[in-house]
Amino acid sequence: MSKKQQRANKKQEHSLIYIVKEQTELLPFLLEMMRNRSRNSVKSILTRGQVTIDDHIETKHNYSLHPGQTVTILKNKSAIKENALIGMSILFEDADIIVINKDAGLLSIATEKEKNQTAHHQLMEYVRLENPANRIFVVHRLDKDTSGVMVFAKSEKIKRILQNNWKSMVKERTYVALVEGEVTKTQGYISSWLKESKTHLMYSSQTKNDGLHAITHYKSIQTNKEFSLLEVQLETGRKNQIRVHMQDLGHPVVGDKKYGAKKKAIGRLGLHAKVLAFKHPSTDQPLLFKADVPKSFVNKSK
Question: Are the beta carbons of 51 and 15 closer than 8 angstroms?
């Protein structure tokens, strides 16, 4: 049995999995399912990010649950320590890198408000179980509400190799985006110069060299009158690039109120890093990692 399978089995052993039968809110549902626990205990399980709904971590007490959704609860503190990782799974690990599949709702790195419940912090704790001197280094980031493939380095040297040669080493970086409305063009691309406002909102300029040049290619996977599922490839990797370019297209990413979305149809941002292919920083071996498209994206765009 592979390390990955062992970790998955261990996580299942320490998880409670429930299928929602009728419409309700998250906290009352958890209190009903975990009658042996006090209200405060259940609230703290929610706050610590131990509850996943379908494909995202959820901490809101009044989150609306619908029949057919899957609620997964990581049982307790000892389970957390034993599993080490909340809101992500390891896809690959060797002496130089760790590649993960991150859930929506988990921060990549620390913010002023949250220091511990991040992919970086958890991986740091994970590698230190083997040797307290071990460390983890951030190579790139995914937004908190974006899920999918991410790579971390195990040394400063490997981090520098990956960051300094990112454009030439990365062979494919494919996202899927669930967007509002029916995208009638089967494929196309958006090109603009991205700038940041004083309120940290990114926006497009069509004036040449007025900002950082960004190019996004898209292809329709499936669509209906309300939603479209797009495969998106980045020619450049700018801050919030897909989110801005989907707004420019007139089809903002689902749940992305910041960039024009009107609906919060799936309880999360409709953006997922599906494929990351790159050359190994030490061996030059080609590596390709995939994270399955969230079911909620597929179901909404059928």
Answer: no
DSSP string, 37-59: S-HHHHHHHHHTT-EEETTEE--
How high is the mean pLDDT of the chain?
90
| Adjacency order of strands within the sheet including 15-19 | 15-19, 70-74, 51-53, 56-57
Which residue do the tokens 């937004």 mark? Answer: 143
231 versus 113: the higher-pLDDT residue is 231
- Active site residue ranges: 143
User: What are the tens digits of pLDDT across the range 266-301?
Assistant: 989 999 999 999 999 999 999 999 999 999 999 999
Q: How far is Cα 23 from Cα 20, in angstroms, rounded to an integer?
A: 8
Res 223 pLDDT > 90: yes
Q: What is the pTM of this model?
A: 0.82
Model pLDDT, residue 111: 78
Burial of 34 (0-12, 13-18, 19+ CB in 10 A): middle
Query: What distances in angstroms separate CA 257 from CA 58, 126, 263, 294, one per listed residue?
Result: 18, 35, 8, 20
d(CA 253, CA 181): 10
Give me the domains of the chain, ranges plus CATH numbers: 1-83 (3.10.290.10), 85-164 (3.30.2350.10), 170-274 (3.30.2350.10)
- If DSSP codes are grouped into helix, strand and coil, which group holds residue 287? strand
pLDDT, residue 4, reads 54
Residues 186-195, buried b or exposed e (16+ Cβ, 10 A)? eeeebebbbe
pLDDT value at position 10?
53
Residue 2, pLDDT score: 58
Beta bridge pairs of residue 17: 72
Q: Report how far residue 204's alpha carbon sits from residue 36's, in angstroms, rounded to the nearest whole number.
A: 53
